[in-house]
Specification:
- 2 copies of one chain form a homodimer.
- By secondary structure, the first copy, chain A, is an all-alpha fold.
- Chain A has 2 domains: 47 residues, Arc Repressor Mutant, subunit A, CATH 1.10.10.60; 114 residues, Tetracycline Repressor, domain 2.
- Helices cover 67% and strands 2% of the residues of chain A.
- The longest helix of chain A is centred in the middle third of the chain and has 23 residues.
- The relative contact order of chain A is 0.11.
- The mean pLDDT of chain A is 90.
- β2 of chain A pairs antiparallel with β1 of chain B, so a sheet runs across the interface.
- Chain A binds a DNA duplex (30 and 30 nucleotides) through α1 and α3.
DNA sequence: TCCATTAACGCAAATTATTTGCTTTTAGCG
DNA sequence: CGCTAAAAGCAAATAATTTGCGTTAATGGA
């Protein structure tokens, strides 16, 4: 299950990794994911299959590895001038990305892998984006809820519905934001969680 | 991707399915899930591998199929005499089951499958259990929140955290229940969601 | 009850994927 | 610049998956 951590960062090793990642993305665009195999990826990347087997072990791990890179936020949350606006806009965009076919597939890939490190990374990405919005709100002197409250109140319901079969409507998403902002000003912060082992 | 729907319900076909399901459960108990293969399951079940390939297509679909059966609730929510008590007890038990190694593996199996019908089933199971608690509350004349509010406020945060790396503490779980019950009596019901296509 | 129909199964051969032992290349470092 | 070992390539061995075809038996109608 070791993926791209603790490997030689330079030269050929990095080139191979990039080439394999590109090959995966390219193949996923042009064909059904059920037909993507490791020998196929290897051919597309110009690498021998055993290299992929030794580095990623299974297709699932490689797909998770590629997916988490694509899920990494590539821009700052839009600054609308208010905490509510920032959170609303960010949430709507997040929901749209995640509920698209590609977003759902990537999430599935990340969750399907044996190694849950990639899932943790995705959670961290989301928290970072919300933290940026929160910081901005505090700089403006606005109140903003705890990150955990936003994760529970906004992110979790959206992701749950996407994973378990219903896509949330835009009205519901706005509602979630409204409720978490309303609750924030009337409830004390909540206790923290414990990290999971396996 | 057709799993066990629209197949001949009687005799041999049903026997084979039961035998394969049992074989999967038995093997998952005695060995690492990464080492469970279709030929192995076939041998344990006393069937030929091609039968499994033709019926389930991939190991992932079979695992999802078995997992969803194990996730089906096998008893009514405990009646504690009050809506709050019922929901608290049910939630704590649900959280415990889902965050155990077996529960997480089963959820992973269900979500990893191409076919999301099994995931929808799991969602439906959960909603049914909550609906039973809600019905009981109404029979007693107690107010009870909308099922969707409980899914968003209690179930989704628990599942999100289990999937994305943190196990919720019992205090947080109680908090979620408290909040959804508090909100229920002060907020109007929310609009419904739209089903997902793919 | 018996027969016709056909879905589902079993078997085995063909194909494809995965693992493994060994050799070659090259990144990292003194 | 040369050493060392991690990572890659290659090819043979093993294992999984697909497929064609004959057999079994569930279902439905006479």
């Amino acid at each position: 299950m070791p993926a791209k951590e603790n490997l030689r960062p330079g030269g050929r090793s990095a080139r191979v990794q990039a080439s394999v990642h590109n090959a995966v993305q390219s193949l996923l665009k042009s064909m059904d994911r059920a037909d993507v195999t490791i020998p196929l990826i290897a051919a597309e990347a110009g690498v021998t299959p055993s290299t992929i087997y030794r580095r990623w072990g299974e297709l699932q791990e490689l797909l998770a590895d590629v997916a988490v890179e694509r899920l990494r936020p590539d821009m700052l949350p839009i600054d609308t001038g208010s905490a509510r606006g920032d959170l609303e806009v960010w949430t709507e965009q997040y929901c749209e990305e995640m509920s698209s076919g590609i977003g759902r597939d990537m999430m599935r890939d990340v969750l399907a892998a044996q190694d849950n490190a990639n899932a943790c990374k995705c959670d961290a990405f989301t928290r970072e984006q919300i933290a940026l919005i929160a910081d901005r709100a505090r700089d403006r002197g606005e109140y903003f809820p705890d990150i955990d409250a936003v994760m529970d109140g906004v992110v979790a319901p959206i992701i749950y519905r996407i994973l378990f079969g219903e896509m949330p409507s835009i009205e519901r998403v706005r509602d979630l934001v409204t409720n978490v902002l309303a609750a924030a000003s009337t409830r004390p912060p909540r206790p923290a969680s414990a990290p999971i082992s396996g």
